[in-house]
Each structure stands twice: as structure tokens, then as C-alpha cells.
């Protein structure tokens, strides 16, 4: 409270006390003349007692969906069917749109045929027909060489014994040399055919794998022609009608799906509040304490939430830090974009002095309460209310334990007047 305000309050209270003394004196004078005194006015009184209370603060908040997903097409095509109701609940995997699948079915059939053809070519290459033929030619050449060697060996002794002519021996030698050359040629052909066959098999195997990849791509594209919900949630309106063209590069999504459970809430706290809450290494309140969400109509959302995240910087324009909390929302009662208040416990106050809110009166620029003296006369006191706790105020200054505060009946009394105190019943006063 400012100094000028304190002085003004003291003056007002002094004037009220003087008026009370004057009225009391008049009353006494009247008694001396035999005039009757009115009976003390009945008032309800609450005794101030220290108690431990939790202090809560309210912050403006707004709900939002953290994991909203835009539904987009992955392949190009015209929409043939639209299979959902805007605003309804959809499940992950549910069919939303069906495109014209004929081009993708044709591509799949073609890819499947290419794979079968390449597999047949690979099977033919694996049988190594050319290699078998080359190996057979080598075996024939080796047999002819063996026969030529045998003919040569038989003629050599016969020529020495003049039993055969030299011409026959020369012919046998020529035949032997020719068959040796044929064997070498056949062997080279076998080696060449073996290498060629291995290369052909490897090439065909690679081709088969590539065509199988093309087949898989064609199959995936056919599946993409049926657009399904990527997540569960509440779906919005379609932005592309039946017959509209879907393209993967389109900046506009087909529709949007919003997950509603849990529902996220963002609210902002001031820089000073953040510093107060986190001083001396303390964590933000609410990570362990439940949060209450007060809706726009003043009702409280039944489920409690918890602070999950705090952004990584204070907004220099507003001097606030954004906090994010999540609330269970299994009935999907909360929707993104709703406004309300988040209520969280920020302090545990020991030996706090509380009075009902209606006991505090506004007198010019200060707050006052009426208390009762030990002889049941009205006293006026300036007080400094603090935090609100339900229907009560925490009084920071102006009262002490044991004071009796008038809660109801202030309009019937004046400072210094006698009163009849009655116990205040909060339930009856509501």
C-alpha cells in the first residue's frame, strides 16, 4: 500500500472512530434523560484462525491439437470415391478416398509380366546349354586326339621295321598335331562359354531383382491409390471433391485429422512468475501437481492435466513464457481452439489468515473489514488482501489470529456500535 493511501486510511478510520465516540456520547446523554437504547444488531462473525492452505493461480489458456495430420495423396489420380463423414471419428487405416486405380493396375500387371519373362530367361541361362555343347565338343576333340596318339604310336615301330611307309607315319603325325590344336581350341571355347554363362546368369539375376523392385513399386502405387487415415482422430471436411485431381505436390491437403485424446492446452506465465517458481533449482509447479481446466462457461473439466513442456525462451514482446499441458480427453469433449483458464497450485502457505470474501469492503481506494472488540463493539480495520482461496481471501496485513470479523450484517452497524455476534455458517451463507 502506498504512503499516501496509508495516511488517507488512517484519517478515514480516525474520523469513523470520532463519529462512533460522538454517537456513543449522544447515546449516553440520551440514557441520562431516560431515553431507551436500541438493542445490539445481530451480525454473523467468523474468527480468524491460522491454517495451511494451497494457493492457486488462474491463467488464460487455449486448447490445441499437437499432432494434427494433413491427409495428402502420394500418387496422382482423380478421386472416384469419398468414404467419410466430415466431423466424424476415423480410425488409423480407415479408407478415406479411392482414386482411379486402372492406370496403376495396368502398371502392376506389366511389371508382373516382366518379372516372369526375366525369371524364365534366368532359368534358361542357369541350364548352361551353350556350356554343355562346348564341353561336348571338347570331349570329342580329346577323343580324336587320343586316337591320333594311338595311331602314331602304332606306326612308329612299323616304319622302323619297314612294315609301313614313312608317308603313313607323316600323316599320323599331322593328324596328331591337328587334334592337339582342336583340343586346345575346344578347351578355350569351354572357358569362354563358362565365363559368358556366368556373366549372363549374374546379369539375369540383376535384371530379375530390378524388375521385382519395379513390381513392388507398381504394387505400392496401386495401394497408394486408396488413401487411408494415417492416424485416429476427428476428421474435417474434404477440400477436394469427387472427380477432383489429386497430385503429390499439391500445397492443399485433401483433409485434416485432429487427434483429440489427449487434448493439449497452452498458457503463458509472466517472467517474474517463472523466476519465482524456479528459484533455487525448483521445478515448474504442475509437473507433479494436477491442473484444473476451467471452461468458458465457468465449469471445470472433470479430468486433471499436467504440465508437459515449457518453451525454450521468453517472448520479448510480451515478457511471457508459454507452458504446455495435456489433459485426458477419452470422451472427446474438448476440441482444439477452445478458450478457458488453467488453474494450478503455485504455493503452499503455512499459517495463513483467511476471511470470507464478502467480509472485505471497498472503502475509496482501500479494503476494510469490521471486527468486534472484546466488549462486542464494532471496529474498522484496513487490510491487505492477498491470494484468493475458494470463497475466501488470504489477508496479508491488518488482522491477527483470534480476531472476530463480521461477515454478514455490515450494513446494519457502524464503528463503535454494540452488536450481537452470531457464528458464521459458510454453508448457510451461500
Question: Explain this structure to me?
Answer:
By secondary structure, this protein is of the alpha+beta class. Helices cover 37% and strands 30% of the residues. The chain is built from six helices and 21 strands. The strands form four sheets. Strands 2, 11, 12, 13, 14, 15, 16, 17, 18 and 19 form a ten-stranded antiparallel β-sheet that branches. The chain has a four-stranded antiparallel β-sheet with strand order 3-10-8-5, with no helix packed on it. Strand 16 (361-363) and strand 17 form a beta hairpin. Helix 2 packs antiparallel against helix 4 and helix 3 (129-160) runs antiparallel to helix 4 (166-224). The chain starts with a helix and ends with a helix.
| N-to-C span | 31 Å
Largest sheet: 10 strands, antiparallel
Tally of helical runs: 6
Beta-strand residue percentage: 25-35%
What's the Cα radius of gyration? 50 Å
Shape: rod-shaped
* Average pLDDT for all residues: 83
- Fraction in helix: 25-40%
Number of strands: 21
Secondary-structure-based class equals alpha+beta
Q: What letter string, H or E per element, gives the SSE order?
A: HEEEEEEHHHEEEEEHEEEEEEEEEEH
Low-confidence runs of at least 5 consecutive residues: 1-7, 18-34
Keyphrases for this structure?
disordered N terminus; four-stranded antiparallel sheet; ten-stranded antiparallel sheet; 430 residues; alpha+beta; 21 strands
Please provide a brief summary of the model.
With 430 residues, the protein is of the alpha+beta class.
In terms of topology, how is this protein built?
Layout: H1 3-32, E1 41-47, E2 50-64, E3 69-71, E4 77-82, E5 89-90, E6 95-99, H2 102-126, H3 129-160, H4 166-224, E7 226-228, E8 233-235, E9 245-246, E10 255-258, E11 263-270, H5 271-278, E12 292-295, E13 306-310, E14 320-327, E15 339-356, E16 361-363, E17 366-372, E18 378-389, E19 392-397, E20 404-408, E21 419-423, H6 426-429
Parallel strand pairs: 1-21
Antiparallel strand pairs: 1-20, 2-11, 2-15, 3-10, 4-6, 4-9, 5-8, 6-7, 8-10, 11-14, 12-15, 13-14, 15-19, 16-17, 17-18, 18-19
Helix pairs in contact: 2-4, 3-4
Amino acid at each position: 500500500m502506498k504512503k499516501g493511501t496509508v495516511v488517507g486510511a488512517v484519517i478515514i478510520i480516525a474520523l469513523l472512530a470520532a463519529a462512533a465516540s460522538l454517537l456513543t456520547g449522544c447515546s449516553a446523554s440520551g440514557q441520562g434523560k431516560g431515553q431507551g437504547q436500541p438493542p445490539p444488531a445481530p451480525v454473523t462473525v467468523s474468527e480468524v484462525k491460522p491454517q495451511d492452505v494451497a494457493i492457486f493461480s488462474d491463467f488464460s489458456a487455449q486448447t490445441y491439437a499437437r499432432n494434427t495430420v494433413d491427409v495428402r495423396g502420394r500418387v496422382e489420380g482423380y478421386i472416384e470415391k469419398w468414404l467419410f463423414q466430415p466431423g466424424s471419428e476415423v480410425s488409423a487405416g480407415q479408407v478415406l478416398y479411392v482414386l482411379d486405380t486402372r492406370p496403376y493396375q495396368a502398371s502392376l500387371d506389366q511389371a508382373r509380366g516382366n518379372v516372369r519373362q526375366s525369371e524364365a530367361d534366368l532359368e534358361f541361362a542357369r541350364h548352361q546349354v551353350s556350356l554343355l555343347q562346348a564341353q561336348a565338343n571338347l570331349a570329342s576333340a580329346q577323343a580324336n586326339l587320343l586316337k591320333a596318339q594311338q595311331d602314331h604310336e602304332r606306326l612308329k615301330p612299323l616304319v622302323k621295321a619297314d612294315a609301313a611307309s614313312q608317308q603313313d607315319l607323316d600323316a599320323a603325325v599331322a593328324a596328331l598335331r591337328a587334334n592337339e590344336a582342336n583340343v586346345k581350341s575346344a578347351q578355350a571355347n569351354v572357358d569362354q562359354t563358362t565365363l559368358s554363362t556366368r556373366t549372363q546368369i549374374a546379369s539375369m539375376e540383376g535384371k530379375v531383382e530390378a524388375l521385382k523392385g519395379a513390381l513392388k513399386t507398381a504394387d505400392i502405387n496401386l495401394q497408394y491409390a486408396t488413401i487411408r487415415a494415417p492416424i485416429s482422430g476427428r476428421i474435417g471436411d474434404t477440400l477436394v471433391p469427387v472427380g477432383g485431381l489429386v497430385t503429390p505436390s499439391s500445397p492443399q491437403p485433401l483433409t485434416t485429422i485432429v487427434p483429440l485424446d489427449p487434448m493439449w492446452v497452452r498458457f503463458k506465465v509472466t517472467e517474474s512468475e517463472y523466476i519465482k517458481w524456479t528459484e533455487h533449482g525448483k521445478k515448474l509447479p504442475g509437473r507433479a501437481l494436477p491442473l484444473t481446466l476451467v471452461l468458458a462457461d465457468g465449469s471445470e473439466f472433470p479430468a486433471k492435466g499436467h504440465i508437459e513442456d515449457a518453451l525454450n525462451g521468453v517472448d520479448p514482446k510480451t515478457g511471457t513464457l508459454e507452458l504446455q499441458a495435456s489433459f485426458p480427453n477419452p470422451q472427446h469433449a474438448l476440441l482444439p481452439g477452445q478458450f478457458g483458464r488453467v488453474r494450478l497450485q503455485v504455493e503452499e502457505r503455512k499459517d495463513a489468515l483467511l476471511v470470507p470474501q464478502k467480509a472485505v469492503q471497498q472503502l475509496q481506494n482501500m479494503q476494510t473489514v469490521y471486527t468486534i472488540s472484546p466488549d462486542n463493539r464494532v471496529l474498522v480495520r484496513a487490510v491487505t488482501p492477498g491470494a484468493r482461496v475458494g470463497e475466501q481471501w488470504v489477508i496479508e496485513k491488518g488482522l491477527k489470529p483470534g480476531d472476530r470479523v463480521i461477515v454478514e450484517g455490515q450494513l446494519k452497524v457502524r464503528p463503535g456500535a454494540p452488536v450481537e455476534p452470531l457464528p458464521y455458517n459458510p454453508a448457510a451463507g451461500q
